[in-house]
Amino acid sequence: METLASAMRRENRRSKAPPSSSASSALASGRVPLVMAFLSCLAWLYVAGRLWQDAQTRAILSGLLEKSSTSVPKVLSVEDKLRNLGCKAIGRKIVEAEMDLTKAKSEGYLWGNRTAAVDSDKKQQLLAVIGVYTGFGSRLKRNVFRGSWMPRGDALKKLEEKGVAIRFVIGRSANRGDSLDRNIDDENRQTKDFLILESHEEAAEELPSKAKIFFSAAVEAWDAEFYVKVEDNINLDLAGLIEMLEGRRGSQGLYMGCMKSGMVISEEGQQWYEPEWWKFGDSKTYFRHASGSLFILSKNLARYININSASLQSYAHDDISVGSWMMGLNATYVDDDRLCCSSSRQEKICSNA
């Protein structure tokens, strides 16, 4: 039999086992809060460091912005920009160059324009270029001229070698390449006395633009002292015209013709109606201008038309248009009654055909 002592020892072992197990579990449960507290401290330190860095960055950017705003004006004027770039002197030079260019245009010269300085060694200098306006239905008139005052064939070529070029001036048909154009081309191949304006449409209402294109084309093709416009209902005293122009050699800014004025027709549908009538004031009177039958421009005036043709205002009639272009220039008006083709004077250069 089990003794009392052994029974008591076994009972003591049973009573000591549970306290040992509960003590170890209590120790384990006490470590968790410490770990969590440590991790919380680390997270707080990380967040605090980032906030401090952002605050420093904002302070630096704010300082830089304040410095830049105090040193540079918020809105820069043109003067400020020129001053900062050091371009005031350049600006003055540009203004001076623009003034020189305007003056050159008004006198009929332009640097870089190939008509402004013609090389006399490469291009013959003529006394005059005479352009006789003609139309598609005027072949009979042209043949009459060729048999009277206007040389033809070799005589026309020799006259040009002596200093006077004469050409019939005509544009192109509204229907390019039609029988009208082909007939002019065939006639020109035989006579070689046409100046064909490829960019001009031949029509009565297009006469003002024909004047611009004629003078531009003539200046481009020949270097002459004078450029003459003649209508195809005029007979010329060619020798008398040449003598008159010889006496004017070397003159600049001459606008020669039979000077006239007249009433502006403001009623639509009437002959000589002027769509721009309101520009001529309450008196409705045209300014002084050379008659369209025959007028003469010196070299620099013809060059002025060539250079500025794109911006020149045209009116209903070519003589009015040319007269308006001359008004803005320092042109010398020469009113010579020998150029009045309808006058009764005996010594005159032209007469109605």
From TrEMBL:
In its UniProt record, a GO molecular function of this protein is: hydroxyproline O-galactosyltransferase activity
Q: PANTHER family attached here?
A: BETA-1,3-N-ACETYLGLUCOSAMINYLTRANSFERASE, HYDROXYPROLINE O-GALACTOSYLTRANSFERASE HPGT3
UniProt gene name: LOC100283552
The job of this chain, per UniProt, is described as:
Possesses hydroxyproline O-galactosyltransferase activity. Transfers galactose from UDP-galactose to hydroxyproline residues in the arabinogalactan proteins (AGPs). Is specific for AGPs containing non-contiguous peptidyl hydroxyproline residues. The addition of galactose onto the peptidyl hydroxyproline residues in AGP core proteins represents the first committed step in arabinogalactan polysaccharide addition. AGP glycans play essential roles in both vegetative and reproductive plant growth.
Q: Which GO terms describe its cellular component?
A: Golgi membrane
Give EC number(s), comma-separated. 2.4.1.-
Question: Which Pfam families is this protein grouped with?
Answer: Galactosyl_T
In the bilayer, the protein is annotated as:
Single-pass type II membrane protein
Which cofactors are reported in the record for this sequence? Mn(2+)
Q: How is this protein named in the record?
A: Hexosyltransferase
**Keywords assigned by UniProt, alphabetized:** Glycosyltransferase, Golgi apparatus, Manganese, Membrane, Signal-anchor, Transferase, Transmembrane, Transmembrane helix
Q: Where is the composition biased (Low complexity)?
A: 17-26
User: Where does the protein end up?
Assistant: Golgi apparatus membrane
Tell me the route in metabolism or biology where this protein functions. Answer: Protein modification; protein glycosylation
InterPro entries referenced in this protein's UniProt entry, alphabetically:
Glyco_trans_31
Please report which protein family the annotation says this sequence is part of.
Answer: Belongs to the glycosyltransferase 31 family.
GO biological-process terms attached to the record: arabinogalactan protein metabolic process
Species for this entry: Zea mays
Annotated region Disordered: the residues are 1-26
